[in-house]
Design brief:
Structural class: alpha+beta
Low-confidence stretches: none
Radius of gyration: 15 Å
CATH topology: 2,3-Dihydroxybiphenyl 1,2-Dioxygenase, domain 1
CATH superfamily: 2,3-Dihydroxybiphenyl 1,2-Dioxygenase, domain 1
Distance between the termini: 15 Å
Number of domains: 1
Number of strands: 9
Helix content: 10-25%
Strand content: 25-35%
Shape: globular
CATH architecture: Roll
CATH class: Alpha Beta
Mean pLDDT: 96
Order of helices and strands: EHEEEEHEHEEE
Number of helices: 3
Length: 139
């Protein structure tokens, strides 16, 4: 079921400061523009790397789910790992059949790549929040 690693999500109190770090310290050169996803409660920016992406996520609004993470990790940190799957509904149903908890309503929602995603609770994934995303066309 698991496909390629699509991205690693990194929560940050400031995307602008994180971009500076990835650019000035790590030498990254390709970044998307920062944009808002109010329905997810985040600002997003991708750092494009040769083999994957880093998804920088910053809180958007008072109800952002990132606030809780940043309260425990004020400087930010790894938030989730995202893998591609061929069929998001089949993946969700398979995860549920194996006893895993799907966060939220369990219904896929549209993620930052414009395709359906679900999140699997860290307690079922060795302590890591796992995002599964429908494989984008052309991947």
């Amino acid at each position: 079921m698991i496909g390629r690693l699509n991205h690693i999500g990194v929560a940050t109190p400031s995307i602008d400061e994180s971009v500076k770090m990835y650019r000035d310290i790590l030498g990254a050169t390709k970044f998307t523009e920062k944009w808002s996803m109010p329905e997810q409660g985040v600002w997003v920016c991708f750092v494009d790397l040769p083999n994957t992406q880093i998804e920088l996520i910053e809180p958007y609004g008072e109800d952002s789910p990132i606030h809780g993470f940043l309260a425990k990790n004020p400087k930010g940190g790894q938030h989730h790992v995202c893998y591609e799957v061929d069929d998001i509904i089949a993946a969700r149903d398979d995860m549920r059949a194996k006893g895993c908890t799907i966060l939220g309503t369990g219904e896929p929602r549209i993620g930052a790549h414009g395709v359906p995603v679900i999140f699997v609770h860290p307690k079922d994934m060795g302590g890591i929040l796992v995002e599964l995303m429908q494989k984008p066309e052309g991947h």
